[in-house]
Amino acid sequence: MSFLYPVVMPKMSMTMETGELLVFHCKVGDVVKAGDVLFEVMTDKIDMEVESPADAVVKELLQAPGAVVPIGQPVMTLITETQVMAFDFDGEAAAGSIESIESSESLVVEAEIPVASESTVAQDPSTQIKAVPKVRSIAAQKGIDLSSITPTGPEETIMMADLGASAYAHTDRQIANRNLIASGLAKTREIPQASFERYVNRTIGESAQWHATLLSSWANTLRSRPDLLSGSDIGVAMIIRSKHGSALPVFKNPDLMPIEELKSLVLQTTELAMTGKVPVHMLNGATTTIFDLTSFSMSSPTPLLFPTHITSLTVGSSEVSSSLKLALTIDLRTCDFYDGAQLLEQLVSKM
Amino acid sequence: MNDRMLTMADALREAMGIAMEERQEVFILGEDIGIYGGAFGVTGDLYHRFGADRVLDTPISELGFVGTAVGAALAGMRPIVEIQFSDFTAQAMDQIANQAAKIHFMVGGGLHVPLVLRAASGSGTGAAAQHSQSLETWFANIPGLKVVMPSNPTDAKGLLLSAIDDPNPVIFLEHKLLYKIPGREAVPEGAERIPLGVSKVVRPGKDITIVATGIMVNRCFEAAEKLMSEGISVELIDPRTISPLDINPILQSVDRTGRLMVVQEAPEHAGFLNEVIAQVTTSGSFGSLIAPIVRLAGMNIPIPYAPQLERAAVPQIENIEAAARAAVREWR
């Protein structure tokens, strides 16, 4: 059985609402292997390669390079024999807010489409546009649609002068990006919230071990309160430093994994993040967030609570002693002060 | 200062004199280079300064005396061979390509061939098809040979000294028309070497990068001066050594200007400058190009005897000027 599998714009950072499609590394009809790079995405703080989740055939490219695509909206479709893990994708929600996307149900669209006949589809018409190499590289960077430019160069070739002001559009785009981040942050600030802090006397030790412990303890703590969960799955998004900025991979039900397995998953994901390649299936499905600032030897007084996440945990280092500072932020619309205090108390005792 | 405005022939003679004083193993051999002072007057008085043992007049047999030089080099000498017209290297190509270039490699580096082969090259003297070729690509395509093409007296002196120092064969191609012309700068007096394999930015500019070899460097310089008065700024690069080729300054320049023009006297087809183009277009600098690359080279014909045709067969200042102007004006 073949599945039609939409590859959507992944959520790659905490404030990301849209991503700019930089370039496709595949074309319609291509046979791709799991792990092959499908396309590159640029956001305000991270450039990342999106990989194929399974062996598949590229059915359709739904967006053009340069398009700014909201998270969750399909960028392309694959046809695969493998039942891949779906990530949040919903046609209606795609155009909506963070809330609707974050809470949307996972789904796999099933289709019975013969693979072979799909591999001979027409080529990208943009390859027929003549442009000097520099114009192409600028167009790819800035998301300029070359078909919208009137060529005045010899043999109807687009030359640098034809780009005019659009070659400088990046300043506007940068302003737009900053606005986007600011509005995302403003949204989290609108949530009625409360934060609690506790100091814990504990040394961190080896990083992967520490993160595995933290993920497992926090998920286990949350699991004891089914009334605060939106489903049976717990997805812990943990901020990881990547070579492009920060990545926010989601660890699904970490408390149900053997700790050694979780530890190696943390190691593997950290390595992938450093090369800018967090697997697509790890970029969605978060129900809570952990910001670990201990590697920076600091703490943050401004926790970020995502809409639809009821909780957010910030771990920081105390300046005065070797103890850790655990800060829990809760959404007061769903969670009471006492619930929050209890959760933090439980977490501390588990650690 | 003015007495240091040497011609290339003077500068080459000076370099050979310095090398012969520095090292007993250095000697020169070739046709008419002794008493006569060389067909183009390059060896001049060296015969009288160093004697017949070190400045050897040979019979008219390139095969014979290049072979002699390869053998002498293997035996620890540092011969400088002068080939009267580079076209005659064909007579000695087995000694050059199959012997000199390969011995060091075929014995695992156990032997060296410190041979310099100087040859008068290029057209413009009315010497017709068999005495006017630019054959640098022949040599550049043979691993084991280094190939030098000086464009001015200062470089000629410094590069020849480095070539003589080099432990393996160096082909040194001198353009006939440059022998009698002083350079744009005084030639330094000492024995300072100019390393092989270092490109030189002859003239900085921002609109177009021109890479030229040999005499074309001079023609491009003249063209660049004229274009400057029209507001077109040319960056001129002389690789000086075509094997090994120092491509980085060229790539960096193309990254800045976005336009590349290559100019050589040798025929366009399969010429050395195509290698420069290939290296630019297969590098990250490809994305910097804002105009098609311009090639200006000799026609794919034997050099004609008729002076007007001889002139028309290879790039002249006005051709360079027009091509560079078009590249900058048409591609903005």
Q: How is this structure best described in words?
A:
The complex is a heterodimer of chains A (351) and B (332). Chain A is of the alpha+beta class and 351 residues long. In chain A, 26% of the residues lie in helices and 24% in strands. In chain A, a hairpin with a 2-residue loop joins β12 (240-242) and β13. In chain A, α6 (207-223) packs across α7 and α6 crosses α8 (337-350). The longest helix of chain A is centred in the middle third of the chain and has 21 residues, at 170-190. Chain A is elongated, with a radius of gyration of 22 Å. Chain B has helices at residues 8-22, 46-50, 62-74, 93-106, 136-140, 153-165, 215-228, 248-257, 273-281, 307-312, 317-330; strands spanning 26-30, 55-57, 78-83, 116-121, 146-148, 170-175, 200-203, 208-212, 234-238, 241-243, 260-267, 294-298. Chain B folds into two domains: 8-178, 3-Layer(aba) Sandwich (Rossmann fold), CATH 3.40.50; 200-330, 3-Layer(aba) Sandwich (Rossmann fold), CATH 3.40.50. Chain B has a seven-stranded mixed β-sheet with strand order 2-1-3-4-6-5-10, sandwiched between helices. A five-stranded mixed β-sheet of chain B has the order 7-9-8-11-12, sandwiched between helices. Chain B has eleven helices and twelve strands.
